[in-house]
Specification:
By secondary structure, the protein is mostly beta strands. 3% of the residues lie in helices and 49% in strands. The strands form 10 sheets. Strands 20, 21, 24, 25, 28, 29, 30, 31, 32, 33, 34 and 35 form a 12-stranded antiparallel β-sheet that branches. Strands 1, 3, 8, 9, 10, 14, 15 and 18 form an 8-stranded antiparallel β-sheet that branches. A hairpin with a 2-residue loop joins strand 24 and strand 25 (286-288). It is elongated.
Length: 633
């Protein structure tokens, strides 16, 4: 690739920046004789350390390389030449030259580096020994020098040189001229092409953002403002434009184009004038679509500011070809998950290869999933009191034969929070289909619970768990388990809780146990128990037993529940798989009943233990019971 084509390509690179106040106007120098006069002051006397930067838009190269002047401080009398930065000729030449001993010029020249009718950033530096020239932040020419620049009494000019009455004026647009009393490095230049930099070494920064009048503000030091000569024009043709990115309250959205990654939630990015790019938004490897009414994310020939909004985003697409759609104007965020990291009981037949997404939104909304070709079983875990309570729900259709759409209607994000879904190639439903799970409080200090199943298979029994909190991990079993009928027909079950000793709100869950040892929970049903002066009947457990801990697997804690037929001393001990005791707790109970203790996955010293299998041992009245616990971090 030729150097000219290389820099044409380089121009289209996108640079991240903060929004500048001086990107609204540039200066158009359309005829000879128009320029910017910065005055003559020792403030601009630079001998062996300087940097000159500018954005230029050449509209005419003229015949010779010295005929278009970017900036100069030159006296043509012998020995006091000074310096100039200029361009021209049909070969797109850029040149910095400075005075040298014996009435000579030192030229540092780069050819075939500039393009007509295109914005490009140019810079020249001198550190006392080397001159370097840059285009768009890339070095294009260098020359060793062993001479200081002569101090001249001529004015600092932008867009012109006065060669003893022979004016060499730039024809084109110029913007954001900076003059430094140091030699800036290549990285300092390239990293700040569109950034306004505050520095004590910055002598002048002419942003041309006034838009009217004949005064040009030096934003680095306005004691040295400049004056327009022969009325150059203020122009709205500027080097780059702001693109405002709004991700609302959805954080962690990564914004990028094919050539630049802008990081998470950048707010504002900047694209070069005329560039064509596509703005992508991504979160956890899932692509997000624009909100309705937003500017297109395909920026074609950018020539004005753009606003791109992801507020109200309701469509995102994952790498497997699934598209997730919520109702318009309901902000939905999603994270890629895994079976092992779900904080809810998983349905049957799930595998590590299943697709897991965890959604969050502020309101109830329909959630639709466009599935590709194939047969897909899609379930979501949320609380739907009218359709089974807190449990896994089937999408409609179930299964979905792709290409098609799966719909979950009015998912209650606001009350549930995180809602996981699982997409599997196998049936992930529970071995029971519920028609209802309901309950009510009678005046006899009793809660009656009823559930109706449409079909059952492979079930062992049902158990009722109760808590004063809407937290299954705090619940204890009440009463005895009820054997399942495993009928393919409708069947009604009833249970009465007579163990209530206080008033208030109670939460009930239905535990479903399979013959293979798997357990699932349904609910909760919420019951308000009001004042009752009668003494409640107490359901005394018929056996002493250590129950299966919940949750299990767990992280970071699990509840160890047990029942006592008789009063007694209880010891709960946790052992590693190698048999080493790492934690224990002694308890004394003066009455029979249902009890629990929480283990927070720590040892005796209070330090967290590693993931793995642990044994829980309960000892009471000379007998012991043991269960396995699985800690998954």
């Amino acid at each position: 690739m030729s150097s000219k084509n290389y820099f044409i390509l380089f121009y289209f690179l996108i640079f991240f920046c903060v929004s500048l106040s001086g990107v609204d106007y540039s200066m158009q120098l359309s005829t000879d004789g128009q320029y910017v006069d910065c005055g003559n002051s020792s403030y601009y006397d630079l001998t062996n350390n300087l940097t000159i930067e500018a954005w230029i838009y050449p509209t005419n190269f003229k015949s010779n390389r010295w005929e278009n002047t970017i900036a100069s401080k030159v006296d043509w009398d012998p020995g006091t030449y000074g310096w100039s930065f200029r361009y021209g000729s049909t070969s797109g030449t850029l040149e910095f030259n400075m005075s040298a001993p014996n009435n000579a010029w030192i030229d540092c020249t780069a050819t075939n580096v500039l393009t007509l009718n295109t914005w490009q950033h140019v810079a020249a530096t001198y550190n006392g020994s080397v001159v370097k020239v840059y285009v768009n932040g890339s070095e294009v020419a260098t020359k060793d020098v062993s001479s200081n620049i002569s101090i001249t009494s001529k004015n600092l000019l932008i867009g012109a040189i006065d060669n003893s009455g022979e004016w060499r004026n730039m024809v084109g647009y110029i913007d954001q001229v900076r003059i430094w009393n140091i030699a800036r490095s290549q990285s300092q230049i390239s990293n700040n092409l569109t950034n306004s930099v505050t520095s004590s070494n910055l002598l002048a920064e002419f942003l041309f953002n006034t838009g009217s009048g004949t005064t040009v503000i030096n934003s680095a030091n306005n004691s040295y403002n400049a004056t327009l000569v022969n009325t150059p024009s203020w122009s709205s043709n500027v080097p780059y434009y702001s693109v405002n990115i709004d991700t609302g309250n959805i954080s962690g959205v990564n914004i990028s184009t094919a050539t630049k990654d802008y990081g998470n939630d950048p707010g504002t990015i900047t694209l070069l004038n005329g560039v064509s790019e596509t703005i992508n938004a991504e979160k956890d490897n899932y692509l997000w679509s624009l909100a309705t009414g937003s500017d297109s994310n395909v920026i074609n020939n950018l020539n004005s500011n753009k606003n791109i909004s992801f507020v109200g985003t309701f469509t995102l697409e994952d790498q497997n070809g699934f598209t997730y759609i919520g109702q318009e104007d309901v902000q939905i965020s999603a994270n890629q998950g895994s079976i092992n990291n779900l904080e809810v009981p998983t349905p049957a037949n799930t595998t590590d290869s299943d697709i897991v997404m965890v959604f969050n939104a502020s309101y109830s909304t329909d959630l639709k999933i466009n599935v590709p070709s194939g047969t897909w079983y899609v379930v979501a875990y949320y609380n739907d009191p009218e359709n089974g309570g807190l449990t896994w729900h089937k999408g409609s259709a179930y299964p979905a034969i792709g290409e098609s759409q799966v719909i979950f209607s009015n998912v209650p994000f606001a009350s549930k929070g995180d809602v996981p879904i699982i997409i599997s190639t196998e049936d992930t439903t529970l071995p029971v289909t519920f028609s209802s799970f309901t309950g009510f409080y009678s005046n006899e200090n009793t809660v009656s619970l009823n559930w109706v199943t449409n079909s059952e298979s492979g079930l062992s029994d049902y158990s009722i768990f109760r808590s004063k909190e809407n937290d299954l991990s705090t619940a204890i079993q009440v009463g005895k388990s009820i054997f399942a009928t495993n009928t393919p027909l409708n069947h009604t079950y009833a249970f009465e809780d007579k163990c209530l000793e206080e008033t208030g709100t109670f939460y009930y869950w239905l535990k479903i146990s399979e013959f293979n040892g798997s357990n699932y929970y349904h609910g909760p049903v919420i019951i308000l128990v009001e004042n009752n002066t009668e003494t409640p009947a107490i359901d005394i457990p018929v056996v002493t037993k250590l129950h299966t801990a919940y949750p299990n697997p767990f992280n970071p804690s699990t509840s160890i529940s047990y029942t006592l037929k008789d009063a007694g001393e209880v010891s709960i001990e946790i052992f590693s798989i190698t048999g080493r005791k790492i934690w224990d707790k002694k308890l004394s109970h003066s009455n029979p009943g249902n009890y629990k203790v929480v283990w927070h996955a720590t040892n005796k010293q209070g330090n967290s233990v590693a993931s793995g299998i642990y044994l829980c041992k309960m000892t009471c009245n000379g007998k012991s019971w043991t269960n396995k616990l699985l800690l998954q971090k």
